[in-house]
Amino acid sequence: MDAHNILDYLRENAIDGVLSHKIIEYAVNVTKLSFQEVERISLANGLIPKRYVRNQRLIKPAEQLTLLNSCVSVVGCGGLGGYTIEMLARLGVGHLICIDPDYFREEDLNRQRFCNLKTLGQPKAEVIKEELKSINPAVVVKAHTTSFLPEIGETLLEGAQVVIDALDSFEARTDLAETCKRLSIPFVHGAIAGWYGQVSVQDLESSKLIALFRSSCGKRELQKELGNPSFAPPFISAIQVAETIKILLNRSTAILSDRLFFCDLLTISFEIGHL
Question: pTM for the full model?
Answer without folding.
Answer: 0.95
